What does this fold into?
Amino acid sequence: MANKQKDEVQFGEQLTSRGQFLRSALTSGPGIFWVVFFLLVPLVSIAVISFLSRGMYGEIQRPFTLENFKRFIGFGLFGYDPLYPLIVLRSLVLGAATTILCVLGGLPLAFFIGAMPVRFKNMALTLVLIPFWTNLLIRTYAWQILLAPENPLAKLLVLLHLSSPGEPLYPSAFAIYIGMVCDYLPFLVMPLYASVEKIDWSIAEAAMDLGADGWRVFWHAVLPQVVPGLVAGIILVFIPAMGQFVIPDLLGGAKTVMLGNAIQQQFLQSRDWPFGSAITFLAMTLVMLSLWLYARSAGEKGGDIL
It folds into this structure.
């Protein structure tokens, strides 16, 4: 009798506890395996390695130590050196500036696509996604050609007295941000456009009837409705942009070290896996802490997390 009480009927079929387990394993098992094997196991491995030491020939060995984290903060054999804190700060500035530029460009673009006739929207969205049809390296090398002195953009800046004749536009900070915005703008436009499509314009009409001007209508009636898509786009842009190193290397002349460069150098050239793991672990902790603070803030305000 007790076994019968545990049985459940789903889709007209009576399932035992064993049957429920097998069905769950078949449906959820592959996804759980993927997350555990390709996400949780590497993260745990990095966390463990970050507390180990580097051997004379680059091997990973004991004892467990906190020296890797102290070195990242800046405390080394020769006193305090703010090298890695400055690298983190530089990467945060790059990610924040790229996000701000993408927001400034993505907001009007998303509303422009949303206002298009239905027959043109799919074409517009396809044009937004076209950069993803080619490899990141190819797109970055293409910008080197476009920013060369003999190309129209450089000549236009010379006519506007913003550049000197024959002067290439790269390597420079201008070239870096051009490449960053080109690569990450679609990550912001797509979720933002999804929110724009769901706007209830009757709220905006009601605000106008109550005497609100255009700016107040946008700020109080329209923008709150697209905040979930905007926040999702900001997260999708900021996190990868903060760890980007290919674009700053190729368009910035490899003059400055970013967080991604520091991690790559430790794992490859320096063969210091414990220190590279410590940098990676702290960077992930910083990102996860930011997401947790945002989620907590959104929950206290009673809003949607995404």
Notes: The chain is about 70% helix and 5% strand. The beta strands are 8-10, 13-15, 53-54, 60-61, 75-76, 79-80. Residues 50-81+272-306 form one domain.
